[in-house]
Amino acid sequence: MGDPRAVELARLAGHVADPTRASFLLALLDGRAWTVTELAAHAGVAVSTATEHLNRLRQAGLIRERRQGRHRYLQIADAEVAQLVEDLAARITPPRPAARSLRAVTAHEALIRARTCYDHLAGQLGVAIADALIEQGFVDQRTGLALTPEGMAFLTDRLGIDPQALAPGRRPLIRACLDWTQRRTHLAGVVGAEICRTLLRRGWVERIGTGRAVRVTPAGRRALRDTLGLASVQDDRLR
């Protein structure tokens, strides 16, 4: 008999191997809860079709459902599923959108500059933050990524992250995530999530519309320059 793991791997791949379901998973990487209607509109399919695909993803354990009143919301099941989707997406060449409209091109460029990747920051901004933390000795990459004592002090004292949020747990404290547009590392794990949450809470970064794109605010440009030396954060982009 064959390896039973091969059967399960093929089954898992089958759940993802559909453009509509893959579109849902990529959309849900923004870490927020979407309604069936919103996901159907995003993928350009009927609500009934979206419901069938979402039920399959839910039964496979890739997404989870939350109900609030009469509304049904869907989210990525957990950080491990998000990591799986991120890792798969990083191995494809991101296509440039057809230049049908200035809006489409602008939206694509916004994702490249800065976006959320489940619960952490990605794009040029995410990579720049990772580089700065490494260069300043807050993250050690000699044997994989590790938060240094100086890094712990920076996160808690300078950024104001609760030390309890950085306590060891089931989720990795810090890990490298290959950015699918930059082909370089941005930070995931607890550290990446807490940095993203803190920058959003402080108003240093804000969401653009309802998608994954975010932008650095004027206050954020000053703060990132003062705390991490990111003097290149200008005009909502990193040069």
The geometry reads as globular
Category by helix and strand content:
alpha+beta
Low-confidence stretches: 234-239
Strand content: 15-25%
In total, the number of domains comes to 2
- The SSE order reads HHEHHEEHHEEHEEHEEHEEHEE
Radius of gyration: 19 Å
Main sheet: which strands, in order across?
1-3-2
| Helix share, percent | 40-55%
Largest sheet: 3 strands, antiparallel
- How far apart are the termini? 55 Å
Oligomeric grouping of the chains: single chain
- The number of helical runs is 10
Count every beta strand, where a strand is a DSSP E run of 2 or more residues.
13
Average pLDDT for all residues: 86
Written description of the protein model:
- The protein is an alpha+beta fold and 239 residues long.
- It folds into 2 domains: 4-77, Winged helix-like DNA-binding domain superfamily/Winged helix DNA-binding domain (Arc Repressor Mutant, subunit A); 102-238, no CATH class.
- 48% of the residues lie in helices and 18% in strands.
- The chain is built from 10 helices and 13 strands.
- The chain has a 3-stranded antiparallel sheet with strand order 1-3-2. Strands 4-5 form a two-stranded antiparallel ribbon.
- β4 and β5 form a beta hairpin.
